[in-house]
Each structure stands twice: as structure tokens, then as C-alpha cells.
Design a protein that fits this description.
By secondary structure, this protein is mostly beta strands. The radius of gyration is 28 Å and the shape is globular. Helix content is 7%, strand content 45%.
Length: 673
């Protein structure tokens, strides 16, 4: 394919044609389902990789909602809206067969589970369908979500950056209940509900064996989501185009057709700046549907950050691919707008097919918003998407510039569909929505979600995450709103945020996005991270653990001396003790100072040195994570060399989550006069 370059210089930004016309006679027609089939495990498995199906409003129709362990103290924006006790919340606890079962989900059918996530799966999970007394699935939750359940291997299920995800669909005709015989964990259960009378074939355990070939094929597709060009059919056209600084190039297409695949390779003097500064705009049938920086549109920003998902991805060599299915009835216009100071060259290929437009067909949408120097307090709901019309939400990619090591993503997703006054998706943490957990900085990739970039140390720097809703897409008939809480551990810093929302909508739909301004596309430099250190401090994370009940280990904490502290965080109860050692340079009397961590799930502890208690037990509860002031612990007779520091659990503040945690930042020794 030959590109036409700029032909004239105008005072206004000129637009130039960059693709030649395509021959419709070479294209392959896409099939359109004439009528809805019964819902079954088999049909849902097909939908897990059917990106073309996202472009047709569902038939039979359904809603998609979420059960979760969100803090139920959150009642409204005026009542505990940012409450954060998101662990161990259940619908109820039932007595069954002599055991306690914590009910995570209880829904009337017809419907289908389409995703289960947990940060810390516990106990035996049981899934009861259609009022049966015996579960259709009974397994260790960590096996079912971790890819170890027979017949449901990775990547259909698996642990990714500490998040456990199951994407195997479980349909039910009448009802579904999900329980665990252990409590104390985080969870999401995403599920569909179909209209009464919809024909649904309930899942049974034998289907894992009878559908083994399909499940194996599905697993292979999810494991290699980029696929091959030959799999897409249609007509492939190659292109190369130069976009001068400050200019626009343009190409028109005639319908009815659909874009089914594209690959882009970018060359520029500053590639990272160009991926943010080159804007892709797409107009379908006269409606502006896509407007985003090129790199953000392809699911990770800024720069090239390798990952492979089903609809989008990037290779380490810099190939950007898109598999979103984009139909149009009469026309499509693609524009590339260069907001950078240098020429940008784009090359690659586009694949089109003929596609029959129906009364259910929807346009693809992808739009970007960014906000800079956003203070982390007061907390707020940051909007990903507000849309009106009929459509289907299909995902989001998100990028944040974080100037500190502290965790930026404690906030929950809140999704409102068709005028809901309370969200039908209320999450448990930003990373939980994106399918990982525990603020984990390790990059990962999966067909449906990824963390392609996290600079570090810890959560400092630029981070990019995404999640794509395919079998768990969220239909709406009138309107849709997706907010994500900005809930940062650091109450005094400012962050930069950018997001691309992906959705489908019938013609005439509207959204709340504003046109992208050139100044918004300029990358802000990250401040250099300086590790804070207290002179002479004996760092808690470097002390040798002599005795402990439960788990104690170093944890990154931006406000700590040296950026870490010793975190005692699991398996303890009142009267349990943590004992660590520290060295004194010589025998004698020392005044000892210490600094500790305070948070909502920290306990009351009796502190001691060499068995000598100092003062009354200390209460380390605080609604937010923060350091204590440096405490004067008193004067102690220390031995030359090894001495012992201990913390014993006494209890917890009445307002605290009863986890009894403890954090030691440092001790500081000063010779006593």
C-alpha cells in the first residue's frame, strides 16, 4: 500500500490522505448469528475469545454485576464512602453439614459466573447450582483459582502478581450460591443474569471432561493471545506514513466493513514522547468514536511496555497490535495528529472484512482522559467513563505517575449501570480490579489483564495496568458510569493519571470526554526518588528475627527510614510475641528512641528491651497508614553486641480491624548521661 505524503503547507493543521482504497471484492464476509442459542458452558467458552461478538448487543440480553468483600460501611457518598475494611465481608455465614460456610454469592438465575478473583484464597470453595444440596464444584479455593483444579489449567485460572483469577464460566438455570468454609479473604465474583425464561443449561462437573478439547483450545488461545495474521482472514494492506510535526494525515474507508486487526510500528526521535504525542482519531459513520494517544490506545503508557492480551498488546521490539473488532455501516475516517516537535513515521498493516450491519451492531469506542498534579487528599472518585445510550463496556487501560514508593491504588471501582444509585460493581482495591493484589510491583501479562510497567522501587515511578472485559463485559441500555477511587497511602503527594476506556455503543450514543489538547500529551518528568534515612538508625528490616508467631518480614514503606520497615502481619493473636536482635557498640546505659507504623489493622503491643518493659502498652491504631512520631522509650542498660527488642500483642483498639499487626521502622541509641 502506498501512502500519500503532505502536499501543501497551510496555516491551519493540514490533513493528508495516507491510505489507498481497498477492494471490497477481496474481503471475506463475517457471519452474523440470526437467533440466540441456548446459554451453556459451551457457548460461553466460545464467547471468551469472540471479539467480534462484543460488537453485537447481546442476545439474549443480560446484566453483569459483582459480589465482593467491599466494606459494607460504605452506604453513600455522605456515609463512609471511602471505607476500606474490604476483607472478610460476606452475605452471611451458614451452618451446613456441621461446618460454617461463608456465603460470597447468592443469586437467582438464569445466569452465569464469568470470573472469580481473590487476593488470598482460603478454605474449600463450594458452588451450589439450582438449589441442590450438593455442590457442583468442591475444591480448595487456591486450587480452583490457581490453575491446579483438574481440567482447568493456566491461563484459564492462575495466580498473577499475587492475584488469583478464574475465568471459567459456570452457567445456571435457577440459582447459584458460592461459599467457603474459611473466612478472612478478599474476593470478587462477577456474574451475568439473563431475563426470566432464557434457556440456560446449567453446568455439571462432567462437562469439564466432555468439553476437554474445547477447553484445551481455549487455553492455547489465551496463552498465545497475539495469534497469527492468517487467523483473521480478510484483506491485509501494508502501509507506511510520515506525520510531520504539527500536522494531520487522514484516510477514509467505505462500508459496510469492519477493521479486525492492525499492527503499528512507530519510529521517532523520542519514541516515548511520540507514543503519547501522536493522537489516533477514528470517526465511524460520522460519529467521533476513538480519540487517544497511540501508545495509550494500545493499552500501555508511556512508551513501549511488552505485554500480550487478547484485544491489544505490544512486543519488546515495538510492534503494537490491535484485535478490537470495529464495524462501520457507511464510512470510517482515521486521522493521525502529531502533537510532538518531530516527524513521526508509522508503518504496519490493517486487516478489513466485509461485515453486515444489523440492528444490534455497535460502533467501537476508545477515549482518553488525563489529569495532572492531582492531590491525594481529599479522596475522590476519578471517572474512567460516563456514557449515554445502549452499549457494552469492554475495558480500560490506566497509567499513573507516582512520586513516592507508597501504594497509590487502595481505591475501589464503582460501576453504575442504567441509572443505579448504588454501584453494582463495588470493588476492594484498584489492583484487585486489574486482577493482581497486595500492591505487587511485579510486571505480568495475561490475555485479559496485565501490569506491563512498574518502574519501582516498590510503587514509585510510572505504572501501567489494564483489564479487558470479554466474557465479563458489562452491557447497558441507557447509561453507564465507571469511577475509580483515588485512595493513596500518602496523604500529601500529587500524582498524574491517564486512562483509556474501551466500549461499544449503538449509533447516537454520547460520552463525557473532551477533545485532547496538545499540552496534555507532553510527558511530565518524574522527580528523582531520594531514599529517606535517619542518621544512626538501626533499621527494623535489618534486624535478625529470633522468635516470632506468624509472619514477620521487611515491607517497602516510602515514609520509613531507608524506605522499609519490619512488618509483623499474619498469624498472631493476643499474647504472641515478636523478638528481634540489635547490636549496641559497647556496654552501658543508652536512651533508646523508636519509630513505628500505625494503621487501621495494627494492634496494641507491649514493647520491651532485654525483657524490660517500657511504659504502658502502645496503641498503633490509626485510620490511615502513617508513621508514629519518634518515641523516647527510656534509658536501658545494654550489653555490648547482641540485645533483644520484643513486641507482645495485648489487644486492639475498638475501632481497629483485629489483625494485631505491628511495624518497626527503626531504633536509635544515644549514650545516656
Amino acid at each position: 500500500m502506498t501512502f500519500l505524503g503532505p502536499t501543501t503547507a497551510l496555516c491551519r493543521r493540514p490533513a493528508h490522505r495516507f491510505l489507498l482504497g481497498l477492494s471490497a471484492g477481496c474481503l471475506v464476509a463475517a457471519a452474523v448469528t440470526a437467533s440466540a442459542a441456548a446459554v451453556s458452558t459451551a457457548t460461553l467458552l466460545e464467547q471468551m475469545t469472540d471479539l467480534a461478538g462484543l460488537a453485537e448487543f447481546p442476545s439474549p440480553a443480560y446484566t453483569c454485576k459483582q459480589f465482593s468483600s467491599y466494606d459494607q460501611a460504605s452506604k453513600s457518598p455522605a456515609q463512609e464512602w471511602f471505607a476500606n475494611n474490604d476483607c472478610g465481608q460476606y452475605l452471611r455465614v451458614e451452618d451446613r453439614a456441621g461446618r460454617k460456610e461463608h456465603v460470597m454469592m447468592d443469586a437467582a438465575g438464569p445466569g452465569a459466573i464469568v470470573r472469580i478473583w481473590s487476593a488470598n484464597p482460603a478454605g474449600t470453595v463450594r458452588i451450589y447450582l439450582d438449589g441442590a444440596e450438593q455442590p457442583v464444584i468442591e475444591a480448595a479455593m487456591s486450587d480452583l483459582l490457581g490453575g491446579k483444579f483438574p481440567g482447568l489449567p493456566r491461563p484459564i485460572a492462575g495466580e498473577y502478581s499475587k492475584g488469583w483469577n478464574l475465568y471459567f464460566p459456570i452457567p445456571y438455570a435457577k440459582s447459584c450460591k458460592v461459599t467457603s468454609d474459611k473466612g478472612g479473604f478478599y474476593y470478587h465474583v462477577n456474574y451475568r443474569t439473563y431475563p426470566a425464561g432464557t434457556e440456560v443449561e446449567s453446568f455439571n462437573a462432567g462437562q469439564i471432561k466432555s468439553l476437554a478439547a474445547r477447553i484445551e483450545q481455549l487455553g492455547a488461545r489465551l496463552a498465545s493471545p497475539r495469534g497469527k495474521a492468517s487467523e483473521f482472514g480478510g484483506l491485509t494492506e501494508e502501509y507506511t506514513v510520515d506525520v510531520p510535526a504539527g500536522e494531520t494525515v487522514r484516510q477514509e474507508f467505505e462500508g459496510p466493513k469492519a477493521f479486525v486487526r492492525s499492527v503499528a510500528r512507530l519510529e521517532a526521535k523520542d519514541r516515548e514522547a511520540a507514543l503519547r504525542g501522536l493522537i489516533v482519531k477514528v470517526t465511524f459513520d460520522g460519529e467521533g468514536c476513538v480519540e487517544a494517544p497511540l501508545g495509550d490506545f494500545f493499552g500501555s503508557a508511556p512508551g513501549v511496555n511488552a505485554y500480550a492480551a487478547l484485544p491489544l498488546g505490544m512486543t519488546k521490539e515495538g510492534d503494537l497490535y490491535c484485535h478490537w473488532f470495529m464495524p462501520f455501516k457507511e464510512s470510517a475516517v482515521i486521522e493521525l495528529i502529531n502533537h510532538t516537535k518531530d516527524l513521526v513515521r508509522l508503518s504496519g498493516e490493517i486487516v478489513l472484512k466485509d461485515h453486515a450491519w444489523t440492528e444490534r451492531t455497535m460502533h467501537f469506542h476508545a477515549k482518553w482522559r488525563a489529569e495532572f498534579d492531582v492531590p491525594t487528599r481529599p479522596m475522590q472518585d476519578w471517572n474512567y467513563l460516563t456514557a449515554k445510550g445502549q452499549g457494552v463496556f469492554a475495558g480500560v487501560s490506566f497509567a499513573i505517575d507516582n512520586p513516592v514508593k507508597d501504594w497509590w491504588g487502595e481505591g475501589d471501582e464503582k460501576i453504575y449501570v442504567d441509572g443505579e444509585t448504588f454501584p453494582s460493581h463495588f470493588g476492594t482495591g484498584t489492583e484487585d480490579y486489574y486482577g493482581y493484589a497486595w500492591c505487587w510491583p511485579a510486571v505480568f501479562t495475561h490475555a485479559y489483564h496485565a501490569q506491563p510497567r512498574c518502574d519501582g522501587p516498590a510503587n514509585y515511578g510510572r505504572t501501567s495496568v489494564n483489564r479487558f472485559h470479554v466474557v465479563d463485559c458489562i452491557p447497558f441500555t441507557k447509561n453507564f458510569k465507571f469511577d475509580m477511587e483515588l485512595w493513596h497511602w500518602n496523604a500529601t503527594c500529587k500524582v498524574n493519571m491517564a486512562a483509556v476506556a474501551y466500549w461499544y455503543a449503538r449509533p447516537g450514543a454520547t460520552d463525557g470526554f473532551k477533545p485532547i489538547r496538545a499540552e496534555e500529551t507532553v510527558l511530565r518528568p518524574m522527580p528523582v526518588y531520594v531514599v529517606p534515612r535517619v542518621a544512626g538508625a538501626i533499621e527494623g528490616e535489618t534486624m535478625k528475627i529470633l522468635r516470632v508467631t506468624g509472619v514477620a518480614e521487611p515491607q517497602d514503606w516510602a515514609n520509613a527510614s531507608a524506605g522499609r520497615h519490619l512488618w509483623w502481619h499474619a498469624g498472631m493473636k493476643p499474647d504472641d510475641t515478636l523478638v528481634v536482635s540489635f547490636d549496641a557498640p559497647k556496654a552501658g546505659k543508652y536512651r533508646v528512641f523508636g519509630r513505628f507504623l500505625k494503621a487501621r489493622d495494627y494492634g496494641i503491643h507491649q514493647l520491651a528491651i532485654n525483657g524490660q518493659k517500657f511504659g504502658e502498652p502502645a496503641d498503633f491504631y490509626n485510620p490511615e497508614v502513617r508513621p508514629s512520631s519518634e518515641r523516647d522509650l527510656g534509658v536501658f542498660e545494654l550489653k555490648a553486641g547482641v540485645n533483644e527488642f520484643s513486641a507482645t500483642v495485648v489487644g486492639a483498639n475498638e475501632k481497629a480491624i483485629k489483625s494485631y499487626m505491628f511495624g518497626l521502622d527503626y531504633l536509635l541509641l544515644k549514650p545516656a548521661e
